[in-house]
Amino acid sequence: MGQTERFETDFWKHADLRKVWDDIVPGEPRKTIPYTLTREAIELYCASVGEDHPIYFDEEYAKRTIYGGLIAPPSIHILLMFACTPADDWMRSPGTVNAGQSWSYNIPARPGDVITLQARALDKFIRRERLFVVHDNVFFNQQGQVICSGRGWTIRPQ
To answer: pTM of this prediction?
Structure first.
């Protein structure tokens, strides 16, 4: 079974394992797992979001660009967020609402990169009876180079 095939798409599966509001500790690193980004995963991600630029699919075209080969689209961090976290991660909780995010992109991810994630909650607070978490995420390649980093705000399920 290939790595792409084992990527879980049922967000309710293992929902009972997810950390809840009281389990989120600001400053505590989240448990993460390395993920090898494949060309197949990039192609499936691009197909799912309607991205058809040849730099993501056509090796001959990509070799003639400033990148010198295939790359993943910057928004691949969406796939990586789930691929680099285990089933019990609180970011996977059904009912979580994205309340905003800000990302910086440093270098492109490429097929074959082994991606690691450093992530943590920075703060959590209640406003108007809603549970908010502020979190940061930094994705690295196998050379320790930062691919992208971001800060987000989510509203947690009650």
So the answer is: 0.89
